[in-house]
Amino acid sequence: MRLDKFLSKATELSRKESKKILHAGEVTVNETVVKDPGLHVDIVNDEVTWAGEPLSVAAGNRYILLHKPEGFECTLKVKEHPIVTELIAVPELGSLRIAGRLDVDTTGALLISDDGKWLHRVTSPKHEHAKIYELTLAEAMDSDAQANAVKEVAEGILLEGEHEETKPAILEFIDETHARLTLEQGKYHQVKRMMGYFGNRVTELHRASIGHITLDGLDKGDSRFLTPEEVAKF
């Protein structure tokens, strides 16, 4: 990789700014001051420093699982709330993308990567990667209402503004106000809209898993890299 590109990727500097610090003699490669922006560096084996601090860039794609807490937006630009990438300590945050966004008040499993094709495989309904949601309802549902909801969700329901019914899903009630919903698609606000179909409202929502990936061992706000085996299963 060209040295100026390496510097830009490893820092928040533009290519133009990278060339300025090179010309100023602030960068070393393997302990030698280098001013040539076109010098090729090995991102794995060469040691690059700026003002004495070592720099690095990711070798290949990153695949990250984040346990999203409340109050964070699944966006790449700051809006009204902090963004989820602020919780991840890796370089080149701008190249990361999110698979299956969660609302600000929703918690749970979030997959983040810079591999666009892989992200598409995670989110595309045709690949049938089930997502399990745990939800709390505003209004209690008695046994008859629960049975009816379970049946209709299993057959597919027509949400307001849609032209096709939802794909068959699995709804399981834990008690009158708590349920678990397993989906293989991800329409806009789907879980909340599905409960709205039955005249109810979701007050708390948590995504417990995506495909085979669970949050075991991760507290809210924590993240980890997926193993190669986990990545391959998508």
From TrEMBL:
Catalysed reaction(s)? uridine(516) in 16S rRNA = pseudouridine(516) in 16S rRNA
Annotated GO biological process: enzyme-directed rRNA pseudouridine synthesis
Question: Which Gene3D superfamilies has this protein been placed in?
Answer: Alpha-L RNA-binding motif (3.30.70.1560), Pseudouridine synthase I, catalytic domain, N-terminal subdomain (3.30.70.580), RNA-binding S4 domain (3.10.290.10)
- PROSITE patterns per the UniProt record, alphabetical: PSI_RSU, S4
Against Pfam families, the record matches this protein to: PseudoU_synth_2, S4
Q: Which keywords fit this entry according to its UniProt record?
A: Isomerase, RNA-binding
Record function comment: Responsible for synthesis of pseudouridine from uracil-516 in 16S ribosomal RNA.
Q: Which superkingdom does the taxonomy of this entry point to?
A: Bacteria
| Protein name, per record | Pseudouridine synthase
Q: Which CDD domains match?
A: PseudoU_synth_RsuA, S4
Q: Which residues form the RNA-binding S4 domain?
A: 1-63
**Species name:** Psychrobacter luti
Q: Which family does it belong to?
A: Belongs to the pseudouridine synthase RsuA family.
Q: Which InterPro entries match?
A: PsdUridine_s_RsuA/RluB/E/F_cat, PsdUridine_synth_cat_dom_sf, PsdUridine_synth_RsuA/RluA, PsdUridine_synth_RsuA/RluB/E/F, PsdUridine_synth_RsuA/RluB_CS, RsuA_PseudoU_synthase, S4_RNA-bd, S4_RNA-bd_sf
Gene Ontology molecular function: any one: RNA binding
EC number of the protein: 5.4.99.-
